[in-house]
Hints:
The protein is an alpha+beta fold. It has 5 domains: 2-126, Rossmann fold (3-Layer(aba) Sandwich); 136-182 and 456-561, Topoisomerase I, domain 2, CATH 1.10.460; 187-248 and 385-451, Topoisomerase I, domain 3 (Distorted Sandwich); 256-380, Topoisomerase I, domain 4, CATH 1.10.290.10; 572-672, no CATH class. The protein has 19 helices and 30 strands. Helix 5 (128-155) packs parallel to helix 19 (541-561), helix 6 (166-182) crosses helix 15 (478-487) and helix 8 (255-266) runs antiparallel to helix 14 (460-470). It is globular and about 90 Å long.
Amino acid sequence: MKLVIIEGAGKKDTIKKYLGSGYDVIATGGHFRDLQKKALSVDLEDNYKPKYVVATDKKETVKKFKEKAERAEIVFIATDPDREGEAIGWHLCHVLGIKPAEAQRIVFNEITKNAVNKALGEPRAIDIALVNAQQARRILDRLVGYKLSPVVSKKIKPKLSAGRVQSVTLKLVVLREREIQNFKPEEYWDFAARLEKNKVEFLANLNTGTDGKKLKLTSKEETDKVVGDLDGAKYVVKEVRRSVTKSHAPAPYTTSSMQQDALNKAGLSLKRCGMAAQDLYQGIKMGEEGMVALVTYIRTDSVRVAMEAQYACKEFIVGKFGKEFAPENFNFYKSKKSAQDAHEAIRPTNMDITPEKAKPFLTPEQYKLYKLIYNRFLASQMSEATFNSVSVDIDANNYGFRVTGKTPIFLGWTKIYDVDKGEEDEKNQKLPELNENDILKFLKLEFAQKFTKPPARYTEASLVKAMEEKGIGRPATYNPIIQNIASRYYTEKEGKSIKPTELGFIVVDFLEKYFANVMDISFTATMEDKLDEIAYEGLDWPKVIDEFYKPFEEDIEKAMEGADNIKITLEETDTPCSKCGKMMVVRMGRFGKFLACPGFPDCRNILPFDKPVCKCPKCSGDIYKRKSKKGRMFFGCSGYPNCDFVAWDTPTGELCGKCGSAMVTKDKNAICNNKDCK
């Protein structure tokens, strides 16, 4: 029996299906050997040598694959095809007594029969350079977290944490919020003329003043002057510029671009996107076919596509849309300079499994994401779209107006991919045939006062985009970092927007004062480049850590000796404590904000942060919205445990006329909460 050790248990059945009866497949369940949790576990005197231990909850797992490895004819290490997967493979070698140079390491970018069997035929040794890059990242993060967290905990508030990448990400959120706070709106006026030719109306925007220069109206007085100057004006077409423009398809998804579209187009949070993507990669049970992996590896920063995938996609395009929709030469896309390019872009594993064919076997979220991935890849391999474009300049009493329009000649890739709508639609109106010297029918002037708006707060998607553009973190780390700063209550959500809490501001300001390097965005990006150099150019990893750690250690000492003792002011509310009468204050806990008595520890009274929904129908206490351990919202009585009233739907505060149970609102209808009551 041959043993294949993989990382995630979710893909076990898919891989086993392709390997057959001669193979046993077992999963590590991710990392099983790591630095100790409650110790530094890095020898500062011996070249930063790490001290690894097997996690307590993974000891049985390790025992199991040791036993299976002893009986196996050969052991294939098939952990994920990235640095973390390589490091887990290296740890496997350690616990199984295999020399890394003699390991049978196999990698595949997609879980298909061909890819798995091809990998089995091409085993290699463990790539120590990749392991060293992952090890260097882990040690750097441990040194910063282990040394920095006690400083912020002592100087600001107990039990705080800080990290090498999380603190810089938090800084981005804080900088954006300060931009918003300091923003001063400027007045401007939109100004356009509604015109007509051959019964086709269109809107031409004011472009230039009587001096021929670009004109921007910034006050009512300026606007009124233009209105007066245009009284009785003739609107004459001065110049028409026609051209054929082309639009090239967007590149297939990287992790970052997939996450952004998942939120913006499908409403999936980073967490939900990650879960759906992992399922699509590991395999979906598709009826009689059994487990089928639908997409390639989902943690990548590359837009490269395998040649065989391009051929398969071209064949599909020609068969479905016609040969004119497939370019003569394949479309190639350039990855960003910082990309590791270790894997392909995210794409479907089989073009014949269309989103509609897969839909019966997918959850709504899996379907939304698969459709995005499928259509984006399909579009990326299609011909350019071409358009007839026109730009028309119109003269009216020496003021210049401009209107642009665009009509499709050949749809190309836009035939199947949803183009973002909005401003482009307004800029490219449907226009009548316009020629120089045409005199247009004037209908009316349209103008409105507006004010410039501050930059928008980050959403999860736009924060991922900013992190990627600035070189902060890597595809596998975007989601954990954003979730981490939220779980520490450094940020909070307002709708889809992320904003810093008061604590977030304080932590960033303190770290900026004492740890300029750690908080420097370009320094963090440079460190990512050095980790890449360790992985691909063999840079000496202890030297990289040493260059960072020695000045960092000096900063730690200065910060600990500093006079800062920051007092966090608690937000007082107008809610009196029901036990001692003091005004309750807002505090943060595991499940978010709550109200607490400032008399703690003498008075330990707490209340939910939200206002009560209604009075409890059982005891006349207050009903509050609450969250279960699994994150599901429900409604419960403040009198718990003396009162056990709970409901999944919103209580109305009324009682059922038939059975006396609470009435709740469901689908805009009031119904009885008692399931046995009709």
